[in-house]
Prior knowledge:
The chain has 172 residues and is mainly α.
Amino acid sequence: MKKMLLIPLTVAFLLALTVSGDAVMGDMGFGQPHMMGRMMSMLGLDKDQAAAVAAIHFKTRKDVIKKRAEIDVARIELGEIVTKDVVDMKAAEAKIRQIESIRSDIHMLHLKAREDVKSKLTPQQKEQFKTMTEARRMRGGMKMGMPGYPPPEADDDMSDEPDDNDMGRGMR
């Protein structure tokens, strides 16, 4: 009986983690469709602008998901390297640099998407967008360390991903 209850609870817990991970994603400062809709409404986008912004948003989300999958695979490969009796330090360093490079790619995807969105806005909408993103940043909603924002603390890796330097957490 206890086992039968434990399985649905475990599944529910894992689903909750998945949903909360998606919510933290924060693509372009409006990670979820409802937030994007709210942003479009607040900016007063016309149909063409809304379609263009939605296309940018969904393309960026897909690209980020692919990059995060690359990181996951690279982390597994790093785990294979560092769990050997004798660690190949050059291979470990190369894999860590690969992971950091992919993370940089993700940051650039976000920055490019943000700039693409801004290019679709009128000067008045750009000013409103700037005000909205600054307010969101002040509430802690934007990723710290992104260009134009304060640098992260030494421990902050600018990501909702587990710390790559923490092998226990970095290996999922």
